């Protein structure tokens, strides 16, 4: 399998390691996780009919579940409605199941098994096959079976000799031959009919892919340790339709990779803070966030001072006495629902907030806007400097989170004091066509995937090419490893 973006999780905001590792941040994040509202308990008869059938099949294959008590909740996982069923025996955790509320598909089942020894291949395969025959019957024959080094048994679907991404089962088996864990891919058994799968002969030849890939490469500078590189970065998902060459989006939490130029109007404002009282006053007067009569507590680390409110809902970051960012959990409310603001409106909110605090020379930037993977109702707006007309990555940056419902700024952090080393001559860059050819010289494979169109997954598979997407050194034309 080609190494692929399956799939990196976008950080909620661009924060320095010092901030993330500070004691104050650890306390705040732990506090916020503990304050999340618990889902309401449901009765068994409130399960959907499809989920009931799945749960009944689990009881048939795991008879020990019969004399357990159940705690059922409905929650959202990866934007999907999911039942969590917690099984207890003698007031102790016994097993847990996650079942898709609408389709009844078993996402994960886990027994509280204390047998951690790994069985030999013969026992593992035999036990897994017996379970699979009970679980999906004769459709077991559609899957190829392999074993991971950690002992798990994997059933993967192949059609026309090509892998069907997300159509798989992963089973754990203990040393006694008992299946203790089952996970299904999101696309498991979505299509059983081989006629739904386009024959590989209809795919364009690999040597014709170049014209599809070159437009997805963006020239930029990247800041490394004591040097600045000039690279072509692959600014797409890594999947293209094998017939049309169109980009395919394989996951719901897709990230926009391309950077777009933007000119901003600096205000030159510098906000300074000396102590807790001043931080409290500035936080309300400058950012409109009140601590409601309480005062910040200051926490100092090696380079920066962090101010944390008593309820840990508000955090203010300073460096050398100058405010460089904040986190406001009160501005993050509500935490549920989809954003009502568009990406364009979120960008406008971020720009309106940011411009007053830019220095006079900080005018030209590149930006991108993405949904926050941890908070689906929020947007993450990232800015990097424009240097000689190209984006500069992994160095100076600004990150702003915008509440997609209220338009309030929930997180802000800027780090623009890092200067790039000597810049490579962009006039010496190889062409995008040459860079694309270098990328396609790496392993490229055909797959069947179920892409998303406007947030909805297609019901039928699409024949796709999976493309190796590491950076290409723009001066040498070689793919970085």
TrEMBL record:
<keyword id="KW-0482">Metalloprotease</keyword>
<keyword id="KW-0378">Hydrolase</keyword>
<keyword id="KW-0645">Protease</keyword>
<keyword id="KW-0479">Metal-binding</keyword>
<feature type="domain" description="FTP">
    <location>
        <begin position="148"/>
        <end position="183"/>
    </location>
</feature>
<dbReference type="Pfam" id="PF07504">
    <property type="entry name" value="FTP"/>
</dbReference>
<feature type="domain" description="YcdB/YcdC repeated">
    <location>
        <begin position="317"/>
        <end position="414"/>
    </location>
</feature>
<dbReference type="Pfam" id="PF16244">
    <property type="entry name" value="DUF4901"/>
</dbReference>
<dbReference type="GO" id="GO:0046872">
    <property type="term" value="F:metal ion binding"/>
</dbReference>
<dbReference type="GO" id="GO:0006508">
    <property type="term" value="P:proteolysis"/>
</dbReference>
<feature type="signal peptide">
    <location>
        <begin position="1"/>
        <end position="30"/>
    </location>
</feature>
<dbReference type="InterPro" id="IPR011096">
    <property type="entry name" value="FTP_domain"/>
</dbReference>
<protein>
    <submittedName>
        <fullName>Uncharacterized protein</fullName>
    </submittedName>
</protein>
<keyword id="KW-0862">Zinc</keyword>
<keyword id="KW-0732">Signal</keyword>
<dbReference type="GO" id="GO:0008237">
    <property type="term" value="F:metallopeptidase activity"/>
</dbReference>
<dbReference type="InterPro" id="IPR032599">
    <property type="entry name" value="YcdB/YcdC_rep_domain"/>
</dbReference>
């Amino acid at each position: 399998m080609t190494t692929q973006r399956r799939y990196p999780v976008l950080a909620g905001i661009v924060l320095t390691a010092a901030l993330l590792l500070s004691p104050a941040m650890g306390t705040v994040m732990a506090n916020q996780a503990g304050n999340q509202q618990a889902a309401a308990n449901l009765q068994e008869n409130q399960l959907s009919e499809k989920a009931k059938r799945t749960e009944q099949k689990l009881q048939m294959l795991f008879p020990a579940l019969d004399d357990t008590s159940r705690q059922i909740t409905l929650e959202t996982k990866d934007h999907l409605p999911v039942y969590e069923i917690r099984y207890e025996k003698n007031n102790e955790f016994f097993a847990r199941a996650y079942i898709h509320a609408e389709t009844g598909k078993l996402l994960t089942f886990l027994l509280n098994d204390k047998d951690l020894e790994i069985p030999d291949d013969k026992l593992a395969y035999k036990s897994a096959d017996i379970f699979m025959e009970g679980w999906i019957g004769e459709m077991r024959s559609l899957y190829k079976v392999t074993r991971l080094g950690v002992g798990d048994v994997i059933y993967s679907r192949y059609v026309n000799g090509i892998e069907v991404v997300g159509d798989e089962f992963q089973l754990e088996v203990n040393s006694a031959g008992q299946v203790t864990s089952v996970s299904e891919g999101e696309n498991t058994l979505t299509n059983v009919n081989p006629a739904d799968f386009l024959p590989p002969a209809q795919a364009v030849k690999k040597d014709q892919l170049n014209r599809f890939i070159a437009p997805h490469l963006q020239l930029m500078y990247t800041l490394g340790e004591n040097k600045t590189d000039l690279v072509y970065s692959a600014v797409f998902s890594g999947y293209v339709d094998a017939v049309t060459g169109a980009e395919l989006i394989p996951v719901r939490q897709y990230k926009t990779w391309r950077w777009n130029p933007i000119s901003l109007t600096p205000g030159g404002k510098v906000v300074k803070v000396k102590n807790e009282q001043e931080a409290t006053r500035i936080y309300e007067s400058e950012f409109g966030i009140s601590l409601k009569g309480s005062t910040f507590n200051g926490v100092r680390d090696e380079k920066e001072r962090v101010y944390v409110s008593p309820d840990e809902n508000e955090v203010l970051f300073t460096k050398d006495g100058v405010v460089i960012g904040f986190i406001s959990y009160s501005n993050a409310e509500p935490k549920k629902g989809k954003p009502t603001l568009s990406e364009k409106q979120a960008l406008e909110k971020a720009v309106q907030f940011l411009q007053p605090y830019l220095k006079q020379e900080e005018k030209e930037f590149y930006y991108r806007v993405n949904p926050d993977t941890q908070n689906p109702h929020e947007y993450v707006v990232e800015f990097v400097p424009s240097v000689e007309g190209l984006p500069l990555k992994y160095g100076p940056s600004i990150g702003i989170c915008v509440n997609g419902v209220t338009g309030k700024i929930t997180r802000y952090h800027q780090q623009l004091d890092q200067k790039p080393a000597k810049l490579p001559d962009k006039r010496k860059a190889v062409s995008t066509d040459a860079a694309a050819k270098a990328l396609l010289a790496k392993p490229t494979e055909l797959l069947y995937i179920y892409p998303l169109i406007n947030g909805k997954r297609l019901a039928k598979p699409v024949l796709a090419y999976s493309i190796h997407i590491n950076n290409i050194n723009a001066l040498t034309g070689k793919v970085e490893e």
